[in-house]
Amino acid sequence: MKLLNSFWYASCIYYYYILKHPSKDDDELAERVIRAQPRQVSAAAGERQENNSGERTAAVCSEAGHKKLTEILLRQGANPNFRQTTTEMTLFTAFALNSADVDLLRMFYDINEELHQTVHTNAKDKHGRDTVYLALHRDMRQMVKFLLMAGADPQYSLRKKGVTPLHVVATSIVDSSSLATILLRSVPSEFRPLQINPQDKLGNKPLHMAMAATTKTGSSFGLARTAPDRI
Predict the structure, then answer these.
(1) What is the DSSP letter of 194?
(2) 139: phi > 0 → left, psi -120 to 50 → alpha, else beta; which?
(3) Number of domains in the chain
(4) If 0-12 CB within 10 Å is exposed, 13-18 middle and 19+ buried, where does residue 72 land?
(5) Tens of pLDDT along 195-205?
(6) pLDDT band at 68 (very low <50, low <70, confident <90, very high)
(7) 100 occurs within a structural domain
(8) Residue 186: which domain range?
(9) Is 14 within a domain?
(10) Which of 177, 176, 102 has its CA nearest to residue 144?
(11) Is 90 helix (H, G, I), strand (E, B) or coil?
């Protein structure tokens, strides 16, 4: 047990250094250090070591864009669905939003599938926001498409406001037509047909919000899709 604790303590020191001094050489150093110790020790160090904000090493690695170190920690046993203390954001969500690279996110899924671990695609943070919602707000179109194809729920709503992904698209400050097209065409079969006239807690539908935001493409798109259900 003392030996394991020593390994864990040493791992924490290395992880802290790597996060503060990111470089290719540090990633290579981390790989050598982690692979040289028992699997359960590196996993524990990656998940349990906290900074003053309650952020775990694995989550910080994802947020800092440490692709290699994130991969190593996953393969060593880090939980992809671990929730950060302060935001309740999962390791998966942090990786998706900060990598902004569909190929890297596909790697994340592939590694966990290889390890027979389920990634909770629809996990929400403490504000009730899931990965699709956050990606839409950041105009990460290809990321949204990939998440939907991976089984993300396009019909969820924020519990306090009742806002759905279509509401987010309707109020986008950029051309929302392609976002709306992605949202409708990439819907997983289990969530079809997609409800296109959902109301938020104030009674607003996506079309109302698109018109109010004077988003011409969003408004015309909504008008074309809402004929069966008049506003």
Answers:
(1) P
(2) left
(3) 1
(4) buried
(5) 888 888 888 88
(6) confident
(7) no
(8) 153-230
(9) no
(10) 102
(11) strand
